[in-house]
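I am still getting used to backbone structure tokens and would like to learn alongside you. To get us started, please write out a protein record for me. Once you have written the record down, we can walk along the chain together.
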Amino acid sequence: MFWNQQVEQLPRMDMIAWQNHKLNKVVERVYHKNLVYNTRMDKLALQPDHIKNIEDLGKLPFMDRQDIVDNYPYGLLVMPVSGVSYIHQMLDGSKLPTAMSYTKKDMSMWAELMARMLVAGGVNITSVFQVVIHGDQYPGYLGVHDGACQVGATVVPADGDRVLQQIKLMQDFGVTGIFSTTEYLLEVARKMRQLGSCPQELPLQVVFCNMQPSKHDSVRDVQKEYGVPVIEIYGLGDVFGMGVGAECHAKDGLHIQEDCFYPEIIESASGQVLPNGQIGELVLTSLTLEAMPLIRYRTGIRGFLDYSQCSCGRTLVRLKK
């Protein structure tokens, strides 16, 4: 099933034309509207008209999380704060704050991307869907909630950190689809077993969880506990939260929403862009974000890109680990 079939099955040449168009617009905007980008491009003697298409993207410098830390809270905005609808503030392991700003249109796009991913995993208008996470994590997953609403699923409200209440909601409302972190899902499963219940007795049809490259076994453990397919969703709060890419039911790589995020794979040490099929570090450029687009953002995620059409029928490029 497709939520936006026109985009999800867009022919490759049409996708490239769209990416070229959006890249031209975003580079021109960040150059003229943001001092950080303007200064960096001027140091390289780059003008916006030097970036004519995605083949020229390699001329632009990389960004990383330190740039977001250094420019907290508004240094990377390309518009007045009055145009911002929502701010997602985070702390990293060293307690250094970061903040991502979004316009109302950015938030609508977040819901759109999540709707695509949830439908690809089997959610539909008949689904009863629950976002099951710790309360302090919830702002980063607003798009998941909004995407489920956009699909037309019946959305059960989250209830903070109370595991027992989460379990009761699953049982009482007959939840068929869940999004959570793998750690929390395993915690819920352990609590259910302590209460004498079996997670596989729930009417669940699909579980969505955040992709965690360093914890390969956790997804398998969740699938074993709940006995249903587990679909991984990829996002990072520095760029867009959940919503950059996700598996479909074929589970043959993460479909990158490349109409919104242009992916590159680079060799980490040299920064050289690698040919398709070679393993390296994922770099993302946001093509549609209005408030705070990021150009060539280094994610630290390793994998390779597969541009072949997936068995599900989607033509969106897949990131494979």
